[in-house]
């Protein structure tokens, strides 16, 4: 198939960007979206132009490195990561708009590449269980009820891609944060730091310039791992309870 | 040193590991931890350690060193340590917990791993791996890793290829992700505590060696393009494997050999570079614009049955129309006791054999034959769940493998509940890597190598669910205990950036970058990478021959020469430049590829993932030659000039088996 | 902060339900409605002075309004700062019309509130020259007003806006208060949002329509 691509080009963090139009031809529908961009870049390199910078690494939908706004949808029209989106989801002759995640907490570095280190800093604020190497008790000493273990697992499936922020009309990071709060807060091991964790993470989230949540639900709909909205409710509940806890 | 052998390499002095203490094998690690010198807590913060790579081995290592109080600098090329490719491991992690009471023990895990590696690994290292495996599970559970649990709240286990006990801990199909996130969170905690300074989007381009000791690295900030010098008392490489030398592999796009190769060029020996693992259950290639291959967990082999049609003329039929009696469940037929659960190398090679015989399935692709002719071959075999669905029900199959089935359908557009999956082997893991001793120290003092980047624990073939085990064992438990023996002699002499060795390292990086940008040729780095990959896959892939390898060496040399004259790298150095990053990585792969072929050529036996067509039993199984090749091949870089690498020097480390009897491997 | 906003919002939900209930008394004739209005002013007597309860409640409502609107504006400006450069193309997948209309709808409701207070509480202008309003009878004031089609139209539009605001607001408050931690409770909260929205909008719409179509108030 042949496609028209409108791609955001921005030379650097301070540069002014703009949408540029490109054509790609002979695209097979078995190709992934990023392989289609590889073809464009190979073409641009051959013509002596600078290829489009975009992030990707594992290309199997788990590392969370890729992430593009494709015709207004975070990660494109399917519920998956950009790297797992295949060209059979598009029509021959279609015009596709490709933009970076847009949020002030995710500043653009170049073209479609953004800086998501704000997510790391939210984790640094408390998204962990303090357990020094070698100090762990025998794994079977604390049984975990299966429903709790399952909920922890579902929340832990977050890949930190940032699609929730990108899709949120408020550019809020609550789904990302709620997933971590729920993951660690569901487990017995996560209880000692539970209340401090939620307060510190929320404070860092707000300081990083993310927006507030208004419970619209775009985040969960865009999430390639289908993290449900109820992790945000859990976060809210923990935040409320944390005020009356000693920690 | 000997004269040139086959015109390709020479042989130097033998080497040996001197760090593993004498005594019974189950006491060695305790003894070594006791013997290793201590560093008092107040001195630790005066000691700088650089960790390159933040996957399971590097992330766990950096976090643990940070907790201990060392002054750590960690580097990764991704935008966050959470992206490292350890995250993609699906199946699980082995540990000798014997929670199932099925006769597992440290010794059995040790034995299985040595046997699985086809008796080409070092006994002492493997025993230690099995010994610390149980601690890893404890550590991960304490960190909040959500392993699968039973209704009673205890941890669940499953069995994995190549063994007969259930010792694999898992978190649905995302075990690697969950373990990595655990290590990542431990690392972020140390970053917040100020013990670890993190450098994301940084690529290590050179190691600094001063007076024979590793004292730092040169790295490029991939956002600003600035070349930076980082000095330290010790350097840990945890930079992963080099499977991307094949271009198409299950590795991430960014996985590369540069950190390890730069260290090799500075004096670190490269161990067993030809040992690569080809994973049997990957999704077949769909076209020539493909950028990577996708693996599906080997756990699929627990319930799926692998087959091809008995007759070549059935190969283009709808598989559901082929009656039972016309199907060849070849693994069950050839290996009745292990069946579909034979080790990866065997499952892969048999799939290749079936396709070579003309009984492969899926679209036929044109292939270049060794004699230069072309023929059409179908590269795929069926992995069929029809029997499992009728036995367990569709819901049970979906609960166990649903995410893998979804992934398959997303990539191929076929529904595996309806028609059998098509699979084909793909490059997955490299058992070879920088040579290290029992302390995980390379042949450069002060340079430690952990995880997939070292050669140490898997011999010639890695068993399923052992990579995660090794990465975390090295990172959490081994390296932090052995590096202190080295650091106890520090802090070493204060270094200045103006030191000639530091300057030399920095200038070599700067001039290389400059050369890439000014070469002004016509071809992209990617196009060279693809061509190299095709050569490697054809001649140094699942089956290797003397003739093919010699041819490949010539082809790689020609390609490398063309690369250095005809490469085009658009853009500037002082900015984010992904073309420049690729160019550097491909340049190193082009050198590594040659060494891999030389290693494969010199090892005139078949073992594990290394199958030499000249060395097989009558029924086509790998035939080892223990009398001649029971050694680790550690290669020393011998310099280069005029675009040619000088013949490398081979150092043999004899493998001595004191506790396990050397046997021809059998899974029949 | 958002918890206060949610609590203030829920206070309004309670208030509009009571208000609606009172309005429905209109259907039972002048006496029922006027007695109700009078009773509101004598509630709590003699401990409280005449209209004392009403003023206390109004004070509470004004505070809640300030909190609710204040935090809403804060969230709005925070969202604008969090995405200072906009998408060229952006499509909504999960957002309901109600959720997208929260901010502009909220402003519309605020404007309506000002109008409504002037209309029935502060100045009480009589737009209808054809009817006389009896002093001290809210019933006659209301009946006079809703005999005009355009007044009814303004109120009906406002009730649609209020319904939509409540539709998203009730669910959103439940989520913010952390009451929706399972898929089931999430569905319940969303259903409750729809229910409250419908009850309030329809309940408020009945008296004006009944007057306009001359079912009551003749």
Helix and strand topology:
The complex is a heterotrimer of chains A (247), B (668) and C (218).
Chain A: E1 3-9, E2 18-24, H1 33-46, E3 69-70, E4 73-74, E5 95-99, E6 108-110, E7 113-114, H2 117-124, H3 146-156, H4 163-167, H5 174-186, H6 194-207, H7 218-222, H8 230-242
Parallel strand pairs in A: 1-5
Antiparallel strand pairs in A: 1-2, 3-4, 3-5, 6-7
Helix pairs in contact in A: 2-6, 3-5, 5-6, 5-8, 6-8
Chain B: E1 10-11, H1 28-35, H2 41-44, E2 48-52, H3 56-68, E3 71-75, E4 93-94, H4 106-116, H5 123-143, E5 158-159, E6 166-169, H6 175-193, E7 196-199, E8 202-210, E9 213-221, E10 227-231, E11 234-237, H7 258-265, E12 270-271, E13 276-282, E14 305-309, E15 327-328, H8 330-334, H9 344-356, E16 364-368, E17 374-378, E18 381-384, H10 386-392, H11 394-412, E19 421-430, E20 433-434, E21 447-449, H12 467-487, H13 500-518, H14 525-539, H15 546-566, H16 578-602, H17 626-629, E22 631-636, E23 640-641, E24 644-645, E25 649-654
Parallel strand pairs in B: 1-25, 2-3, 2-11, 3-7, 11-21
Antiparallel strand pairs in B: 4-6, 5-6, 8-9, 9-10, 12-20, 12-22, 13-19, 14-15, 14-18, 16-17, 18-19, 22-25, 23-24
Chain C: H1 2-24, H2 30-42, H3 52-82, H4 97-100, H5 102-122, H6 138-145, H7 149-176, H8 183-212
Describe the structure.
The complex is a heterotrimer of chains A (247), B (668) and C (218). Chain A contains eight helices and seven strands. Chain A has 247 residues and is α+β, with helices and mostly antiparallel strands. Chain A has two domains: 3-110, Ubiquitin-like (UB roll); 117-242, Alpha-helical ferredoxin (Fumarate Reductase Iron-sulfur Protein, Chain B, domain 2, Orthogonal Bundle), CATH 1.10.1060. Chain B has 668 residues and is α+β, with helices and mostly antiparallel strands. Among the domains of chain B are: 279-427, Succinate dehydrogenase/fumarate reductase flavoprotein, catalytic domain (Flavocytochrome C3, Chain A, domain 1, Alpha-Beta Complex), CATH 3.90.700; 510-654, Up-down Bundle (Methane Monooxygenase Hydroxylase, Chain G, domain 1), CATH 1.20.58. Helices cover 35% and strands 17% of the residues of chain B. Chain B is built from 17 helices and 25 strands. In chain B, the strands form seven sheets. A five-stranded mixed β-sheet of chain B has the order 1-25-22-12-20. Chain B has a five-stranded parallel β-sheet with strand order 7-3-2-11-21. In chain B, a hairpin with a 5-residue loop joins strand 9 and strand 10 (227-231). Chain B is globular and about 75 Å long. In chain B, 59% of the residues are buried. Chain C has one domain (2-212): Fumarate reductase/succinate dehydrogenase, transmembrane subunit (3 helical TM bundles of succinate and fumarate reductases), CATH 1.20.1300.10. Chain C has 218 residues and is an all-alpha fold. Helices cover 72% and strands 0% of the residues of chain C. At the A-B interface, helix 1, helix 2 and helix 3 of A face helix 3, helix 5, helix 6, helix 11 and helix 12 of B.
